[in-house]
Amino acid sequence: MPRAANSSRQTQAVLQALLASMPRWRHGYHLSQETQLKSGTLYPILLRLQRQGWLDEQWEEEIAPGRPRRHLYRLTAPGAAEAARRQPVGRRDHGAAFLPAAEGEIE
Amino acid sequence: MIDKAPPTPTAGSLLYRAARALCPRGDRVWIDALFAELPRIHGRRARASWMLGALPVVASTSMAAAAISVPGKLRWALLACFAVLLLSGGNAYYGYELAGIDDDAFLATALAAAAASIALTALSARRVIARSYAADPAAAWRRR
Question: How far apart are CA A8 and CA B120, in angstroms?
Fold first, then answer.
C-alpha cells in the first residue's frame, strides 16, 4: 500500500514545528534546532512542502548589517489545515481553524 | 528586491558555487537560503555540517528535474532494458539453460540489452541537457 504523502517522522516534525509557531515566520536554522534535523534533511522537506503549496516562503526585509537576508517559512492555510489534521491526538489545539495573518512576526 | 538571492559571505566558497551551478535555475534560491543561515551558526564543525546539507538539496532538485525531463515511456523502456540486462546477464554468467534455451542466447540478449540501455541512457541525458538549456537561455548562448 503506498504511503501517504508527507507522513514521514521528519516531515511531521517540521509540520508540527511550523504549526505551533503560526502565524510567525520561521528561519531554517531555528527549525533545524527545534526539530533536531540536519540541513540536508530539513531543506529538501521545506522544498517539497513549498512545491505542494503547503509552505509560504520569502526573504526577510530587514537585514542585520554585514549579514545576508534570511529565508523565512510559514505554513499556508491548506498546509496549516493538513498539519492540524495530522497532529497527534491530544495536541489538536494548534492552528486547526487557523488562517495565516498577512503580516506575522519573525522567530 | 526581496526574492532575489542575497549576497552571502560564503558566496565565494567552492561548495556554494558548485551547488548553485548544479541546481536547476528556479531552485537555486534554496541553496541561497541554506547558505544565508551560515553567519548565525557557531563552530567550525557545525558550519561544515550545515554546508554539506547543500548536497541533498542539489540531489533532490536535479533528480526531480531529470525525472521530469525524461518522458515516462523512455523511463519505463530504460528500466525494462536494465531488468533484461540483469536477468540475461546473470543467466549467461552462471550458464543456466532456463526453459531449455541455450545460455548463449541469454548472452546475446544481455549484449543487446546493454546496447539498448546505453542508447536509452544517452537519449535521456540528451533530453535532460536540452531541457536545462531551454530553461537557461544564457547557457544556451554560451554553448554556441
Answer: 34
